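Notebook B, p. 112. Complex prediction, attempt 2.
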Amino acid sequence: MDVLYFAWVRERIGVPKERVETDAVTVAELVAELSAREDRYAAAFADLSALRVALDQELAEFDAPLAGVREVAFFPPMTGG
Amino acid sequence: MDVLYFAWVRERIGVPKERVETDAVTVAELVAELSAREDRYAAAFADLSALRVALDQELAEFDAPLAGVREVAFFPPMTGG
Amino acid sequence: MRIVVQDAPFDLAAETERFAQGAAGAGAIVTFTGVVREADTGTMTAMDIEHYPGMTEKALTSIAAEALSRWDLTDALVIHRFGRLHTGEQIMMVATAARHRVAAFEAAEYLMDYLKSRAPFWKKEILAEGDAAWVAAKDDDEAALTRW
Amino acid sequence: MRIVVQDAPFDLAAETERFAQGAAGAGAIVTFTGVVREADTGTMTAMDIEHYPGMTEKALTSIAAEALSRWDLTDALVIHRFGRLHTGEQIMMVATAARHRVAAFEAAEYLMDYLKSRAPFWKKEILAEGDAAWVAAKDDDEAALTRW
């Protein structure tokens, strides 16, 4: 699946987008898998309460299932307007 | 003093403005004096709850004193905007 | 603060632009525009707006000054027309500018609520059949004032 | 309903005029315009607005559709820019048209509240010293959603 990062999450991880092959069942499992991979992920995902996640461009919860999802995005709380 | 009428009060009384010589101490006394004068005034002032009064261009109550007032205006509740 | 009472139409685009350009330091600008719409019964052809020259300007100035003192506004504008207006014509506008959006919204609603019930304007609907009817004040409009 | 997401400036006067002309049957038109203002500390020179292409348009469309279904609106407009903006530039606008003023005001505030916290935009303040800081979401903005 495609994993996208925005704002300081993008800056901390160092790329705006990457292709990730995973067997993670939920978002939380994907986060754990990425965090275990490298420090920059662990740093970005250290406080999930400061993060939001979208699945196929719809806001979702961290316990949401990834089945059928093509695009996951992580970002801080939004500040539009 | 000058007495002004607006909207349906003006239509019912038949003039937009007139000069009134009066010894009325309050607005209510002036209303009673005018109502006693002719039917068209009595008709216009029949229901004071449907009327508003301004003294020298400031909204006032019907028991307000007329001392020093140069301009009295009677009109229905306002419908601006 | 600018208060305009006139029978001529106003240019909504130009007034909005002018207000926005003058709103230095503001982060939020709210405008409200009132338009003569078809009556709910659908037979209205025009609206006559009567007002109380002199008191109108005083009342609008006092309402706008109160808004400026209650909220942290950088500016406020009120334009209100009188005379005969036809369906689709713009009757009036208010604009508020503030650092933050909540103040701009609240102050604009305050201006509208007071302008509806405390500025000396009276509307008469001119109906297609040649009849005419004064618009009655709404209890809702009077009740809206208790919010502030 | 019209949703625009672009990096180019928009013409507030022209957009307001166009929206008002298209608002047939509306008696009330509300606009909100957001402007890049000086930071409270006063050292900001510009603002970078990042967004999530694709999701942004979807989120704004969904927020506007919800507003149209909750209130008796005749139309709604959302324009939001992204990219680098300087102090005094207009970031975004919303407009609502309705038969009655309360619906137009409430729907505009609803659009703003949701757009602040549920549309994927992120602001970064570019400071005079060459530093930059992401704008943190405000608890107040999240709390504002509970009103609806």
